[in-house]
Write a structure and sequence with these properties.
about 375 residues; alpha+beta; 6-stranded mixed β-sheet; 4-stranded antiparallel β-sheet; 10 helices; globular
């Protein structure tokens, strides 16, 4: 199952497909007793997708057979033993993907010529993604972090390994004793290349960066690569060959400290925006401003959900299942704000007080 949503992956998911591109969404649960019903619920929603394919006159028999087979393959790949809070299946002629999300989703089936991505976008934003670069003299590994976990990232040549150097006794005789590991020019060139590769990663996917390593390794990287200047240093060696859990345990205090400081900064900015009358609160007001690309900073409480219907002028509260109801309006707002260049921050429940779960700082 997929977890990491890069800009390139998102662009590929949004690419138009031959009709039908099927999106199947269902909430899942991490623990009993609710998780016991996830398998039944998943089979039922996939069956509903097949039913809609059968009933749609725009779907040819050949394509229906293809997409049904893709749905069956996707269903076989689902691992509910490691489920999180939401599951998304994408299926189209000749392809399928399964995404596990650390944010709940409404149960729904959508047939279109593109996949429904807003729930993925919102889930990633809620996880506060970050990078971890683990540095040693002979190996540099990159980790993709977010949602209380890290996984190894194999992009831009990572992990990078420095091969053994042929022993040259004449060179050692000329220069005297061998230089210390991080003073050796070959090692420094290796770290310089790793730093350049990390800069390329940050250009395509900007996130907070944490760098782990022994003090000598961190100092050497600082000297030869500009990327380390804006990173948080975590003095912990041995993680270039470490496990995901070991890396997460090492960076967790720094990540949580940064998150707490981020929440405080958001609260200050919202309060300042109130005084300047550049403040919006509540789902209807924020949605109106998001559609006009006026939101500069969006703050959403982590578990805030609301079902609404659009009466033409405003969003009104509605019950799930009502005609024209929209169960994932919060995710729509998040995606719209990200598309228009806003900074989106998820904050603990209760942080926004009378703002009713969602608030924004306006551009003008």
């Amino acid at each position: 199952m997929e977890h990491a949503l890069s800009p390139a992956t998102l662009a590929e998911l949004r690419r138009p497909r031959p009709y039908p591109a099927v999106s199947v969404l269902t909430p899942t649960h991490r623990r009993e007793p609710h998780s016991a019903q996830d398998a039944v619920r998943l089979r039922n929603v996939v069956a509903e997708a097949k039913k809609q394919l059968e009933a749609d006159p725009a779907v040819t028999r050949e394509r229906r057979v293809d997409v049904v087979a893709q749905l069956d393959q996707a269903l076989a790949e689902v691992d509910l033993a490691h489920s999180e809070d939401g599951l998304v299946i994408f299926a189209a002629p000749g392809e399928h993907q399964v995404w596990s999300l650390a944010r709940t989703v409404p149960e729904r089936v959508v047939l279109s010529d593109t996949f429904l991505t807003r729930n993925l976008v919102s889930a990633q934003a809620s996880e506060r993604p970050f990078w971890v670069l683990s540095v040693s003299a002979h190996r540099v590994a990159l980790w993709n972090g977010g949602g209380e976990r890290v996984t190894e990232a194999r992009v831009h040549g990572f992990p990078r390994t420095l091969g053994p150097e042929n022993f040259d006794p004449e060179r050692q005789e000329r220069i005297g004793d061998t230089p210390s590991t991080f003073r050796d020019e070959r090692t420094r060139a290796f770290l310089r290349e790793a730093g350049s590769a990390m800069e390329a990663v940050l250009r395509t996917s900007p996130r907070p960066l944490y760098v782990t390593g022994e003090t000598a390794a961190l100092s050497a990287l600082d000297e030869v690569a500009g990327v380390a200047g804006n990173a948080v240093h975590v003095h912990h060696g041995g993680l270039a060959h470490g496990t995901p859990d070991a890396v997460w345990q090492a960076v967790r205090p720094a990540v949580r400290d940064a998150a707490a400081k981020g929440v405080e900064a958001v609260a200050r900015e919202l309060e300042s925006a109130r005084g300047r009358k550049e403040f919006a609160a509540g789902v209807d007001e924020v949605w109106q401003n998001a559609r006009e690309a006026r939101v500069r900073l969006l703050a959403v409480e982590e578990n805030y959900r609301i079902t609404v219907r659009d009466d033409g002028d405003h969003l009104m509260p509605a019950a799930s299942g009502d005609l024209d109801s929209r169960d994932d309006i919060v995710d729509e707002i998040v995606e719209k704000c990200l598309e228009t260049g806003a900074d989106v921050r998820f904050v603990p429940d209760g942080t926004l007080g009378d703002a009713q779960g969602v608030a924004g700082v306006l551009r003008y």
